[in-house]
Write a structure and sequence with these properties.
The protein has 120 residues and is mostly helical. The chain has a domain of 78 residues. The protein has five helices and no strands. The longest helix is centred in the last third of the chain and has 15 residues. The protein is flat and about 40 Å long. It holds the Pfam family ParBc_2.
């Protein structure tokens, strides 16, 4: 029978289960975080790899940024959005967004599309 379908990058999906358009994708907290980091000039949109950059950056942040709200979530944790986290704990949200921006400029991120590093 095929692979079990899981969200948030844990297993590949069979082609018949893939969404037809990127706008139809399920919410992904870390893909959203990667977009915010890019908007804050944490990395640049790479014209050679523009479509999949947020996925790669999202995977990078997924193992490095954990919001307090994720640790205390009681229900519907997989449906949590960055806006939910911002409303629940603005200080943690701001701290983790700053941490993600810092990580985006770190040597760990050097191989990711659009990496700009640290200036100065």
């Amino acid at each position: 029978m095929g692979l079990p379908l899981r969200r948030h990058g844990s297993r590949p999906k069979q082609s018949q289960h893939l969404k037809q358009h990127v706008k139809d994708l399920d919410n992904d907290l870390y893909r959203s975080l990667s977009w915010l980091v890019r908007e804050a000039d944490g990395y640049v949109k790479d014209p050679n790899n523009a479509i999949f950059a947020e996925f790669k950056w999202g995977s990078f942040f997924r193992t490095r940024v954990i919001f307090d709200e994720q640790l205390t979530c009681k229900k519907n944790c997989m449906e949590m959005t960055l806006e939910d986290i911002r409303k629940a704990d603005p200080d943690d949200y701001a701290e983790k967004l700053g941490w993600a921006r810092y990580l985006a400029s770190s040597p760990e991120a050097a191989g990711l599309p659009g990496f700009v590093g640290r200036s100065g």
